[in-house]
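ugh ok fine here u go
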Amino acid sequence: MSDLLERLRGRGWRLTAQRRVVAEVLDGDHVHYTADEVHAKAAELLPEISRATVYNTLGELVSLGEVMEVSTDGRAKRYDPNAHHAHQHLVCSQCGTIRDVHPTGDLMAVLPAEERFGFQVAAVEVTYRGVCPSCSTS
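structure:
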């Protein structure tokens, strides 16, 4: 069983066939699908699943904090099930591929106190950008 499915079961979230398929599609490392990609992959497993059901399920998973919405450069939102493990993202500026990365060190310490302007910083989001191997050989 996937990590996401285990977390959802642990929360007592009712796992209908449609919800289960969406959670199964989101299983894995470096998963950052758009809602349309989730729908297409879910329809391969459960042909009768509707686009509205996928969108509603993704919205519920985000509200529950079990999936994160990731937006990069005005592209379509992507859904990341790695919501419970601190990580940053590496994004290809050409094709939009996203990879989870785990930089070492304390990212909170990088921002000097005088640059915090009195804010109580609660979280840090860093996006690394570059060109992936597939695009760099094109």
